[in-house]
Fold this sequence. Notes:
Strand order of the largest sheet: 1-7-6-5-4-2-3
Number of domains: 3
Radius of gyration: 25 Å
Shape: globular
Helix content: 40-55%
Structural class: alpha/beta
Amino acid sequence: MSSPLDTDGQFELPAGELRALAHRMVDDWCDSLATLRDEPAWRPVPSEVRARLRAPLEHKGAGLAATYAEFQRDVLPYRYGNVHPRFWGWVNGSGLPAGVLADFLAASMNSNVGAFHQSAVYVEEQVLSWSREMFAFPSDGDGILTSGGSQANLLGLAAARHAHAPGVREHGLTGETLTLYGSRETHSSIDKAVELLGLGLASFRRLPVDSEYRLRLDALEQALREDRARGCTPFALIANAGTVNTGAIDPLAELALLARREKLWLHVDGAFGALAWLSPEHRGQLAGLEQADSLAFDLHKWLYLPSDVGCVLVRRPRGLAEAFTTHAPYLVNLRGGLSAPAEGAFKDRGLELTRRFRALKVWFALKTHGLEPFERAIRANLEQARELVRHIEREPRLELLAPAPLNVVCFRYRARALDDAALNALNQELLVRLQESGVAVPSQTILGGRFALRVAITNHRTRSSDLALLVETVLELGAALARERIPLSSAPSPRA
Length: 496
């Protein structure tokens, strides 16, 4: 007998309608994969669509079919674009189909992977075990899946702070001035991490780099000496396994030796670059990564998975648990039932109590494909970056602006008789027109005051012909802009 308090019927959809529309959604998605290459890599959101997406909330619903039609009209065509073969902006994964389907299954399970006796906890533990195996980390180390590299960096540095000053959890930062070190190319998420950890931006020493944008060991050693002379307490060192600007790799093996000698926690930010470890031919560039005290990396970047899923591994057993475990009467374990202890208590390894089932797409993709295809795809992306460099070096109207040790290539269009200020304006406008053309989406950075077109290849759909088309289009747009004589006032001045 139903009760006036029973509300589940309000959200039920007729079984036939639900099944038919679900099939249609999957069919539409599969069809879109077949035509991705023919679509624009990106298109701007028109004003009329933006207006519709600002409409107030309706009291009555439109229904599932009508809402899906609105999605197809107003949302899907104007996506970020990183599923496209010619999307190389910032650093984004390309969305493996196996991961997409796994995310659907994970959402249908609606698991809270904070703790307790459930399959999702064991799946995440297995994914973490595989990750430790991939990077030659100790099997008894700690780890957790995160929303991405920013959170992974924060958790890794929290473990470092606790290892050095465990009393901080109870008493806060008192007395000593803790300092940590990295290159000026270190990712901006580290700034947020040191702020949130109460260390303050002034505690983070951003140090000079060499001509290949790698941390200079001499500058690091000098900073350590000077800080100790001032009474500061160095406690952590951040090394980059692929900087976001150029893909530069800090001298990891030397930094690991220095960290041990100086009793510093070595945190490696390998958001995308760490995954190059899966290519045996390129593993030597990352030698020393396996000696890190903590390693942050994103599986939604160079493992091509849908966002979001990052990871932090910690060498020290219970290194995260010691930094984050709390106790509450509503979370105690019982001898059995759902609250029985399981292998993973992820609520005690990070910030989140409620956690989505991120691990399933990693588990699903690796179970589906095995590791070998990922090794081949990463190797191909690395060679595609070399191929793009060769295109640039052969063309006198293009200029390579930084070494490309991994998968990031920075270059610009070069026109005779234009100085750097004029070239900056020209290349900024070139990038805007390139993106708005829908041909390709690189992003941008500033290197030594020079505006760079930045191509980061973490895309399993990219082909050599896509890179050739990029070069051809850049040359066409650059020549047209050089004839137009873009005024300097048309673009903001880049800042290094």
